[in-house]
Each structure stands twice: as structure tokens, then as C-alpha cells.
Amino acid sequence: MATVAAVIASTHHPFYYKASTSSGPDRPPFADEWVAKIKAFRETLTKARADVLVMVGSDHFHQLWLDNMPQFLIGKAPYYDANFYNEEREFGLPRMFLRGDEDLSAYLLRQGIDAGFDLAFSNELRIDHSITCPLITLRPETDLPIVPVYTNIFAPPLPQPSRFVELGRTIRRLVESWPSDKRVAIIGTGHLSLELGGPRQFGPHGPDPEFDRKAVSWIASGDLESALAEVSLDSLWLPGNATHGFMDFMLMMGVAGDNAKADYADSLDLFHTMEAYFTWYPEGER
Amino acid sequence: MSKYLLDKFLYTVDRDPDLVERYRQDPRGTVEWWEAERAGVILNCHGHERSTWHAFTDSEREALATHDYVTLFELGAHNFLLLTLFIALFERDYAEPLGFQREFAARLSHWSLPYPDIST
Fold this sequence. Notes:
By secondary structure, chain A is of the alpha/beta class.
């Protein structure tokens, strides 16, 4: 059976690529500290010696649209083109080309449906920055095949937080039962408190530092009980109008397991958002 | 009330570089053309198989035609689509980094929770 080599959860800040590659007067003052943190975070994946990456993220109204909106979708394709015109325009992200692992995609789809998740699928999926940002930070060589998993954190009605957690638990169980000798890293990105297109956007820090502090503590300690008790679809509006992306962190807590303490946890208070980085090693700390 | 159509306008313009420029330069003309020619296009269907029932309300049409993102927010346009397209339209006019984004926030500062419902 396959091995879960690492479980990794982080924010996906689309400005990292531009900040880390800029120089001279264009380089923001926080870039060096940010790059140093990312390099340390990247090492946590390198050490896991993964063969394939399951990548959990969310399409930002790129390929998935309101005329046909899936709640949970798994890509099953041999290759994925990635990043869109408006991400090049706004964030300076490069076009990318990624290899897929169709065997693992097929396994997660078949077994996931049989486990009670009526998963949508796509045989031609263009990936956006929720998945390319963590590849840029964690595996810029993009040499490992991926299985993309998209969640709807964007277009109400959304699935309940508990459903995200349960999908995470299911993905973990299914990867561990995949008949393969491969080492799989399960990586997912979401948000802490975040406001986009509202009065609290782009402040000096995230819109709700108190929520961020609690959220980081829940994730680092694997405290799903508190997270599920305090977080609801209604409550997530309070820390910021784009905070439903926190449910992808909750999904990753489901992957990591109840009360699973992160082996690596770091954060960075940036303008308008807090960045956070977590890694678990199910085989034991590396 | 046609929040879906508002979002469809923002979505289809935002993903097309030519339409972004056209909407910046001629908002009213672009909105009128779009409502007549594009509103009914189902994105994954042949052009002859189009929806026949879409129309903006007068207030929606006017808000789009005047680049009035405060009113669009209040009408329940999706916050992410609204921000992304309006950054593409106007960020270039501000000297300071994030200058437009901060003005956008300031112009909505009279709002507190709950914000207008973005459900479609």
C-alpha cells in the first residue's frame, strides 16, 4: 500500500512569486524574511521524499463557473496546464505545465464515491493559483505528478465545515489503501482571516488577528473538536468575507488526523493577511 | 434582481484582455453590447443554443455602465469577481502600490456585517 509521506497545509499567497523574484527597488522590504521562511518550509517536503502529490485547493472562478458548479472535484488527466490570464495580469504568475497521476486520480474517484462523496471529475482541468502557489513555494521544480482536488469555498451554497473535515479523513484513508508502493504527500492550501472585495481588505494585517491566532493554534495542535465547535458557514463571514477558505485548512486537519500535532509550524504576519505553514509526518518526525 | 447575470458579466469580461480594455474605455457601450450579444451565451454550448431570458435590472445596468463598484457590492455582486476586475480596470491609475485596493475599501467603509448576500 502507498505511504503518506507528509501532510502539508499552508496559505497560498499569490504575491509570493513576484515578491521573491523581484530585485532592486521593486523588491518589497518583507521579501527576504518571506523567502527564508518558504525555503525552510520547502525543506519539509523535500525531506519526505514524495513520489506524487495530492494537491487540495479551490478554483477561483476560472474554469468552474456558476452554470455548473461542483462542490468537490478531482482532476483525472495525464497533464495539467496551469495559471490563467488574470493571474498573470494581477500577480505576475508564470504559465506552468504539470504531470498528472491518473492511477491515483481514478482510485480516489472510485473509492471516494463508494465512501459516500459524490465527487465530480474533470479530464481537462486548467489549474489555478491555489495549487500552483504551493508548487512554487514547496516544489518549484514541478517534477512530481499531481492529483488535483478542488473544493468550493467560493460560491454559496457551500458544503458544511464538517464535510470538508470528513473528506480530508477519507482522502487520508484512501491514499493509505492505494495499492502502490509510492510515497504520497497530501498538500492543501486555504486561508486564515481574509477580506477581498470588502471594506476590511488590504489593511496592515489580516482582518481578524484574534481569529488567526486561534486558527493557527487549532491547526498546529490538530484541535478539530474546537475548530468544528466554533466554525460554521455563518461564523466564517465574521473574520473576513473570504475566510471560507479556512475550510480547506480544516480539510487538511482531517487528513492529518484528530489531535495530530504538526511536526512543523510557522507563520508570517504580512500586510492584509497572515501566512501560515504546517507539516505533519505520519511516519514520525524526520 | 439578476445577481447571476451581474456575476456573469464580471466573469466574462475579467477573463478576456480585449474586453477588459473595452469596458475601461467605453463602459456604457460595452454593457449594452454585452447584454444584447453575450448575456445569453451558455459558456459550454454552441452559440445557437443560448438562454433567452436574461436581462439586467435598470439599477444593475446603470451601476455597470458607470463603473460603480460600491453599488455593485450593494447589489450582491460576488466580492472576488468585483475586486479582480476592478483592479484590472483601475489599479494602473494609482501611483502607490495597493492604492486602488485601499480606496475601494474606504469607499465601502460605511458597511459592517452582514454584507449584502452574494448567493446566486
